[in-house]
Specification:
The protein is of the alpha/beta class. The protein is built from nine helices and 24 strands.
Amino acid sequence: MPPFSTLALAAGLAAPVPLPPVPTAEQLAWQRMELTMFVHFGVNTFGDREWGDGHEDPASFNPTALDATQWVRTAQEAGFKLIILTAKHHDGFCLWPSQYTAHAVKRSPWRGGQGDVVREFTAACHAAGIKVGLYLSPWDRNSAVYGTEAYNDYFVNQLTELLTQYGTVDEVWFDGACGEGPNGKRQVYDWERYYATIRRLAPRALIAIMGPDVRWVGNESGVARPGEASARGDQWSPAECDVSIRPGWFYHAAQDGQVKSLDHLLDIYFKSVGRNSVLLLNVPPDRRGLFADPDVERLREFGAAVRAIRERSVLAGATISGPAPGTAALLDGDLDTFWAAPDGSTSATLELDLGAPREFNVVGLSEAIAYGERVQRYAVEVQRDGQWELLARGTVIGSRNLHAVPRQRAQRLRWRIEAAKAAPVLAGLELADAPQTPPATKVSLTYNKPASASNVHPGGTVWGADKAVDGDLDTRWATSDETRECWLDIDLEQPETFGTLTIAELDPRITSFRLLYRLTADQPWQTAYQGSRAGKAYEQQFAPVTGRYLRLHILEATKAPTIWEVGVF
């Protein structure tokens, strides 16, 4: 049962009916962790490789100063709540003394052949209150039975060792790697049997990626899509964004100078955690068995910058009003309390008064996801000289949406829920003056506005006009192969003043175009700007004009026009 808001109950309000699908208790707790860590460690660390071939000498594994407490302490200080260890990678080398293979730490000189990395790791996590995750590669390039049904027995036996000998395991992480083994055969994985084993031995453990509980976001850059949703059909399937702090997943001394910058990590944070996802950041121990100094220092900086977003809130003493009681729950910092819009409503406006002008550069919003993912589109506006100005826009909110905005000073803001699948149920607002954020980006007036085109590629709606205004640089409007002249129309839904145009083409094709505008649908088009070549990152300022309807009229192109995004500001 979802947690009830004590504030809502005190006001005599009934808790809303959940909108399926909703997260399990374990999925809800997982999404609230926000930051999780991957630890890639094994014989690859000593072979200076990313993928081993299964023929490594176990004697090569000899971390002279392994200290799992250093991993855990560093992760915890940076705000990470769970750590996943590569107990076995594709090379088949086991970081515990598995009784089912000799390709394991028991054949190494480390700890005199009596060592167990998994035991030291899990003990350090449990002692510190950090949750435990284990990665067990289904692909095993060492096992002679890989490619036969006997391998499924072998894999389940190893799963059983890991889930019965090391205390509580909170997450089991599988990838889908599958290749030929020593017998020249590919393995048919018995996933259902693997899942049943986990459910029996660790019933509260989440099964991630090649499993039913946590979904891979689809890249290894740590970046979710704008509007990333956890509700997918009738399943709750939250996204995990994995990325390494270095170019490689395993440690390579040559990459000590290539640790991601703080700016880069913060950009990833806003595009993963800030887009309703969980960040899984890989930090690989070196040959000593320790996190390397450059990684530790960057994690300290990153942890401090992330903490500042919450600690530098400017909401103290603020008041908020909306179309139903209980709005104070949005400012209490407690995700188990919530504000619910009136039953049957699919929009709402919440006005915030800070009491006095304050500076801020981060805005955020969270849904009470125990009651489902409801919001489909929202806007954040700031009041200046009695007028409301657009500050940020979004679609799906989910567990948390964050926006880095240009630092400004204001007293009044409002959050407008423009569309929702059911009455919005929100858990919290955020407004902070953070010392460091990713570069702020302004929101185009065209974002998610109705769009149509004179021509769309026959491949279907995947190439529709709406893809040019969805804020997603992974989707695009495309025209049929023979097209050279065409137009894209956008309805801003109200009169707006703008003086900057941006175009992001797939590749430079447009050679002549006009930006047209008009205030009403029955007026003739007027030219705001005429240009020649556009390109992948085109931006042009012009004398500001006011209009509601826009037309990007492409007059000439070298190939069929294909555009990721069109924006006006």
